[in-house]
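Re: [ENG-882] Designed sequences occasionally contain unexpected residues at chain ends

Forwarding the minimal case from QA. Structure tokens:
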């Protein structure tokens, strides 16, 4: 504002000097004032505010430009960081997935079925991990003697607190009640062949290949009391 006011004052003074010079020429007394146009430099002063104003604009443009330049740099840096995080997450997930136990089934275990004297009318199933990584025994074994058309149920009171996980070479167990000790069972018959199916991650889903352990030559007698425990880590718990 002060510069603008000074410019107006300079302009007014220039007009006054020019008027006096013109008057002097007309009176024939101002021969030395032929340079009456000398106040012209003061006229240039009127453009000074405009020049100063224009001169400040490139400075603002430069600031704006520097802001735009820094933003993409930040975005690129952020994007790189996000990609790094995603790769790390995928790597962690892959590591966790590879460390998860497999499901025990007929392809990575050896299964035996052996009748026992105690408890009475019971049979012990033993599953040994023959694979190279741990496997888990899910729920309870699904039994089928010969062409049996019904499925023995798992005993709810035998459900363990944790799913048994077998290291390579380790064994898990399940107990089978073949027939009622008091003879109350119906439809008694002798089974010659036993097929054991393994359950998957959800109840009644397939866990993979089944197993057909050998039975005694005389077969195994069972009736409608046939039932099985959940898989156990300890033999005693399977036969309890």
């Amino acid at each position: 504002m002060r510069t603008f006011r000074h410019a107006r004052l300079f302009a007014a003074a220039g007009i006054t000097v020019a008027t006096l010079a013109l008057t002097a020429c007309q009176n024939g007394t101002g021969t030395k004032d032929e340079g009456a146009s000398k106040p012209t430099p003061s006229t240039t002063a009127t453009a000074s505010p405009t020049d100063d104003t224009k001169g400040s604009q490139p400075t603002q443009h430069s600031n704006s430009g520097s802001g735009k330049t820094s933003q993409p740099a930040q975005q690129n840096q952020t994007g790189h960081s996000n990609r790094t995080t995603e790769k790390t997450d995928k790597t962690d997930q892959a590591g966790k997935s590879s460390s998860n136990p497999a499901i025990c089934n007929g392809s990575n275990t050896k299964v035996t079925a052996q009748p026992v004297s105690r408890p009475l009318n019971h049979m012990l199933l033993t599953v040994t991990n023959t694979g190279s990584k741990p496997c888990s025994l899910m729920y309870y074994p699904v039994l089928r003697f010969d062409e049996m058309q019904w499925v023995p149920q798992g005993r709810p009171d035998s459900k363990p607190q944790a799913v048994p996980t077998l290291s390579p070479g380790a064994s898990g167990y399940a107990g089978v009640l073949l027939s009622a000790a008091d003879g109350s069972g119906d439809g008694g018959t002798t089974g010659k062949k036993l097929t054991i199916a393994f359950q998957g991650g959800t109840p009644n889903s397939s866990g993979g290949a089944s197993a057909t352990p050998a039975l005694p030559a005389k077969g195994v007698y069972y009736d409608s009391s046939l039932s099985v425990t959940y898989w156990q880590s300890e033999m005693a718990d399977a036969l309890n």
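QA comment: On inspection the terminal residues look reasonable. The longest strand covers residues 109-116. Proposing we downgrade this to a documentation issue.
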